[in-house]
Amino acid sequence: MLTKVIITPGSHPSSPAGGPPPAVAASDAPTDRPVARRHSALGVLSHTTASSTADASVSQDADNQKTEHKSHEPTIDTRLLRSMSAPIPIDAVADDSDVLADILTPAVVGNQEALTSEFSGAEGGEEEFEELAFDAELENDENQDGGNAAAALGSKHSIRLKLGLATEEGLMGHANEDRMIVEQNEHFHLLAVLDGHGGEWVADYVKAKLFPAIARCYDCGFDVRKLADTVDALDQEVQARATQMQDFSGACMVCVLLFVDEVTGAPTALTLNVGDCRALLHEARAKGKKANKGVGPNGRLFALSEDHCEANAKESARVLASGGYIEYGRIGGVLEPFRSIGDIDMKEREMAGWVIATPEIKKTPLALGRSTLVLATDGVWGSLVNQKAMAIARKHPGNPQAAADALVAAARAAGSMDDIAVVVAHV
């Protein structure tokens, strides 16, 4: 779907051309509020403030990587590390009820004061599946960003991954703007998907800069405030360069860091979310009964991120508290995700605080040898609910590449027209 739109009087982004807006109540706002206007340049939708108009120049990456799109999920406080606790039953999915009946989803408990909430779920098992233990290193970028390439990673801290990556251009008439990132060093793995919109430049820039920026944060572990500051600083860097180029593109991001805590020895996942991409974690049952407290016969499912969009009441409250307004589910009637990197025209001085890049961060324990991670852009989530997507991924045990390909195919079959990027990891 289009994340940035041109809105003209008498029309609406979800209405037929020239048609009236649907019966949707817009948030109250003063008549002198800032107005974001979008215009089309080179087939790419971009936007400016009411006081200025500029041509958007889109800088394309030399390796012609595939593009990104945006998802939609909410969060609250700009620097909130949330805990996951008290799993609750998932929604039923009829055609996969045998697989999904005992998967559980956590209730998310927010603490606006703290940045270091801990996961309070069941203990993770320590047994590793032999078929998931690989030590091979990625040797080229082709394995890191491209369809049909399965990649295996190993670390000195015993977290081993088997990966599947898939991406596909959408049916919207522009190049693929979604990107994937798979990187590692001796301390941690970084997995991410980027959903670009309005062009490819921001997504490509973040793809190149994110891992070295995160690596500089590592010091026997990660400080979540420093991670949040790092992503904010990256956004400031993007804005400075994009302003010089008059590039109005943007990107949503979900990033998962996998590492062993050097103090506690606990395998850990840290999820950084900006916008409406999503990350899911499925934990299968262990062989021993002790490690299965709270885990049903088919394991349990955790949402590692929440969409930053109108449906997230806390995120909407944040936008309104900043002085922003929401029309037709979009900030300023223009931008669907409420957090993003880039989008300089939505971060003008008079719109300060409306759209932010500060990630919401969650800390989750990993059950080594029996965990499945799915990261995807909203080309998947606009068509598949979380439980359905994970059920599809779990139909390919030991073959994350087949799982990633199946998710792309299922999203298309369900009607997705957006760009898609998927990373599946067996941990």
List strands and helices in order, with pairings:
Layout: E1 36-41, E2 44-49, E3 81-89, H1 97-100, E4 104-109, H2 141-144, E5 149-153, E6 161-168, E7 178-184, E8 188-197, H3 201-215, H4 224-245, E9 250-260, E10 267-274, E11 278-283, E12 300-303, H5 313-321, E13 326-327, E14 330-331, E15 341-342, E16 360-365, E17 371-376, H6 378-381, H7 386-394, H8 400-413, E18 420-426
Parallel strand pairs: 3-16
Antiparallel strand pairs: 1-2, 3-4, 5-6, 6-18, 7-8, 8-9, 9-10, 9-15, 10-16, 11-12, 11-17, 13-14, 17-18
Helix pairs in contact: 3-4, 7-8
How would you characterize this protein structure?
With 427 residues, this protein is α+β, with helices and mostly antiparallel strands. The chain has a single domain (81-312, 354-426), classed as PPM-type phosphatase domain (Phosphatase 2c, domain 1), CATH 3.60.40.10. It is 19% helix and 26% strand. α3 packs antiparallel against α4 (224-245) and α7 (386-394) crosses α8 (400-413). The radius of gyration is 21 Å and the shape is globular. The chain starts with 35 loop residues before the first strand and ends with a strand.
